[in-house]
Design a protein that fits this description.
heterodimer; A: 291 residues; mainly alpha; MetI-like fold; 2 domains; 14 helices; 0% strand; flat; B: 464 residues; alpha/beta; D-Maltodextrin-Binding Protein, domain 2; six-stranded mixed β-sheet; five-stranded mixed β-sheet; 17 helices; 15 strands; 48% helix
């Protein structure tokens, strides 16, 4: 069997489907995007080569700048709010044991099971200034007036809350699995040595969770960059692009504004940013591992 | 050892063969599929044959020309109310009258429709499609040559309102037919007005004052769908009509062709919109609320007025709306503004939506036959009127029954008394990049986060 796997024809056969998928489903569309990014293609008529015009326009486009800033805010939100909470909840769940552990694990994961469309509409109603849950709860506590949760000033924070809440279950579950894989003997030894809950968490759980944290943080940042569906359904980037994200803006430009060439230019910049961020993260984590 | 080596070679060969077979099988299926699709498109049947034998049989049946499948791509997903119901009624009638014709409907809401329309434009369009006779939609579509030319003289007896076909033409050739005459209206709850002794405003200043009074009473003055952008752009068009009068269309076309939106009339109209929003004319969070939420505010009695087009006149017949509200829905047009050139009867109205036939339809003749059937005056026009979906683009006078709702009678009166109509609203007058820009930026200017000058500069840049 070992020899079979070293047969170059077998290797070729096993690798070929993956290579074909990569070539035709990933590399070819990227090459086409690069090409169309240099044109004024509308998606229907003939394209004209316009050089770097799309890219020049893109660097002066405030809506695109805003969309990148929003992705950055979301990534910070994921790393500084969602993930610390997810680690703590995972650690607490691990300590709960028994039925409660299973019940709470399910409860925290429920938002991930619900469809994005339902989530978006649910929060639309929660945020509604006239009959939304949030303002009605505020009224119970004596607050007069209506808070406009999706106003131009507040909308991005309201959207971030939804996105952080929605992705919380996945993060928590991955951390929880990581914690479960830590050898319980270490905790027993720490307990015998008189270590408290915090010391155990800080000295044993966190250091052993590093590989899981690295994967989760990388996934969170990529997910912040490619955020689209929840924003599209919740605010569609509005009011006035205040909740715009790169993927949604790409969609609007390519498919609503008939600026297919411009949309492809956004796509190319988007790919470059994603690759750069991934390389950067890998470098940062590799350095830490080596250190 | 030699035997083991041979076995390994055999397994390796089998693996390669299995891979090759699966790849070839995939190609083979594709070939069969594409042949079948070709057969479908040539013979116009929706074959669901499960094997080759049945495929062949279908092809033989189809070659007689008996069975025809028309694909209709519609922007009316609600098939039980309003315009979607009317469209479905005509489809059902056509299939009853022509048993050999099967019409398959694919219906999506407007935004999803426009996105998929573009995909279809690249890969092959369904036979009959919904279109909009406005530059923001039609210019690129006609440039791509995906719509079939229609013979205008065929429609001489179809009683189209004068000028209603113009938006569907390019270089004098007709490519589509209009369905509605859309009028921008301010719907109001008559009972609420009477109970509170509020009067229908005669001027925009009166409207502002009235909105203040309504707001003080704890009710939302006007429900505005600001989340979508286009209703506010239509509202702005209406204001511009009142500010600039019949000159407004020249002002818009000049601005779009030059990218210079600094005309004082454009500034005044935009400033009025900004002042109105700042004074609390619309509901809190209007700039993020969608069509359904906004309409619900009005139909649930939480808002006294509602800005929307005449296509929403079917609210008066919608039994999902409480009777005391449904029967009390009335409408008025944008009141005159101080020092404005537009009179009370210069209205914002246009012939927007309609239908066209695909240029590459394999069943073009049948598609045009169906299109013509839809537009027979006793079809779209009559059924539309009976179902209260607003004004048709054809003369409807002979279908008046005397049982029209008060709202319908008001709308007829508004149209009959009109001294001028605006034509295409401002957001649909330019290229689609301009439409996208104005519908997004108008949210920012109305809520005060962008200045009027910046707004006008930004939308001007989108025209260049």
């Amino acid at each position: 069997m070992k020899k079979l796997y070293s047969n170059k024809w077998v290797i070729f056969t096993l690798v070929l489907p993956g290579v074909l998928v990569f070539l035709f489903a990933i590399l070819a569309p990227i090459c086409l995007s690069v090409y169309y990014g240099f044109t004024d293609y509308t998606g229907m008529s003939e394209e004209n080569f316009i050089g770097l015009d799309n890219y020049v326009q893109l660097f002066h486009d405030s809506a695109f700048g805003r969309s990148l800033l929003n992705s950055l805010l979301l990534a910070i939100g994921f790393i500084c709010i969602q993930h610390p909470l997810a680690i703590i909840v995972a650690a607490v769940l691990d300590k709960l044991q028994g039925k409660a552990e299973g019940i709470f694990r399910c409860i925290y994961f429920i938002p991930n099971v619900i469809s994005v469309a339902v989530i978006a509409y649910l929060w639309k109603f929660i945020y509604n200034p006239d009959f939304g849950l949030l303002n009605n709860v505020l009224k119970i506590f004596g607050f007069e007036g209506q808070v406009n949760w999706l106003s131009q000033q507040n909308a991005i924070w309201s959207v971030l809350i939804v996105l952080i809440w929605h992705g919380f279950g996945w993060g928590m579950l991955i951390y929880y699995t990581g914690i479960k894989n830590i050898d319980p003997v270490l905790y027993e030894a720490a307990s015998i040595d008189g270590a408290g809950w915090w010391t155990t968490f800080y000295r044993i759980t966190l250091p052993l969770m590093k590989p899981v944290i690295q994967i989760n943080v990388t996934m969170a940042i990529i997910s912040a960059l490619k955020q689209m569906e929840t924003v599209y359904l919740l605010t569609n980037g509005g009011p006035a692009n205040s909740t715009q994200f790169a993927a949604n803006y790409l969609y609007q430009q390519a498919f609503k504004a008939f600026k297919y060439g411009y949309g492809n230019a956004i796509g190319v910049i988007f790919i470059i940013i994603c690759v750069a961020v991934t390389v950067l993260l890998n470098t940062v984590f590799r350095d830490k591992q080596e250190a | 050892m030699g035997g083991t080596k041979n076995e390994e070679k055999l397994i390796a060969a089998l693996l390669v063969a299995a891979m090759s077979v699966s790849v070839l099988a995939g190609c083979g299926n594709n070939k069969k599929e594409s042949t079948k699709t070709d057969a479908d498109s040539k013979t116009n049947t929706s074959s669901e044959a499960g094997n080759d034998k049945e495929d062949t049989k279908d092809k033989e049946d189809d070659s007689t020309g008996d069975e025809v499948t028309l694909k209709l791509f519609s922007n009316l997903p609600d098939r039980k109310n309003g315009q979607g119901l009317v469209e479905q009624m005509i489809i059902d009638e056509y299939m009853d009258a022509n048993p050999n014709v099967k019409i398959e409907v694919e219906a999506l809401d407007e935004e999803a429709y426009k996105t998929k329309f573009k995909a279809y434009a690249m890969d092959g369009m369904p036979d009959v499609v919904s279109i909009w006779g406005q530059p923001s939609f039609l210019d690129e579509v006609l440039d791509a040559g995906v719509l079939a030319e229609l013979n205008e003289s065929d429609y001489a007896d179809y009683k189209f309102i004068s000028g209603s076909l113009e938006g569907f033409k390019k270089d004098g050739k007709l490519y589509g037919l209009p369905r509605n005459t859309d009028i921008m209206l301010i719907y109001y709850n008559q009972k609420m007005f009477e109970d509170n002794s509020w009067e229908v405003p005669a001027t925009y200043e009166d409207l502002m004052t009235l909105c203040g009074t309504i707001k003080d009473a704890g009710i939302t003055p006007i429900a505005m769908d600001g989340g979508d952008g286009w209703p506010m752009a239509c509202f702005l068009t209406d204001l511009l009509v009142k500010v600039a009068g019949t000159e407004h269309s020249n002002i818009i076309s000049n601005a779009i062709s030059t990218g210079d939106f600094s005309a004082p009339e454009l500034k005044s109209a935009t400033q009025l919109l900004v002042d109105s929003a700042a004074a609390g004319m619309f509901q809190t969070g209007y700039d993020s609320q969608d069509y359904g939420t906004t309409q619900n505010l009005f139909t649930n009695g939480q808002a006294a007025m509602y800005v929307m087009g005449s296509w929403d006149a079917s609210m008066a017949l919608n039994e999902d709306i409480a009777e005391d509200i449904r029967t009390n829905i009335r409408a008025f047009t944008m009141p005159v503004v101080k020092d404005g050139k537009g009179g009370a009867n210069d209205i914002a109205a246009w012939n927007g939506g309609g239908y066209a036939v695909s240029a590459n339809s394999a069943v073009k003749d049948e598609a045009i036959k169906f299109l013509n059937y839809m537009y027979q005056p006793d079809k779209l026009s009559k059924y539309g009127w009976e179902n209260g979906v607003g004004m048709s683009a054809q003369d409807q006078s002979e279908y008046m029954t005397g049982n029209e709702t008060e709202l319908q009678k008001q709308i007829i009166e508004i149209l009959n008394n009109a001294t001028s109509v605006s034509g295409t609203p401002i957001n649909d007058c330019g290229p689609s990049a301009f439409k996208t820009a104005i519908e997004s930026e108008i949210q920012g200017v109305s809520n005060g986060s962008t200045s009027v000058d910046d707004f006008l500069t930004t939308i001007g840049a989108a025209c260049k």
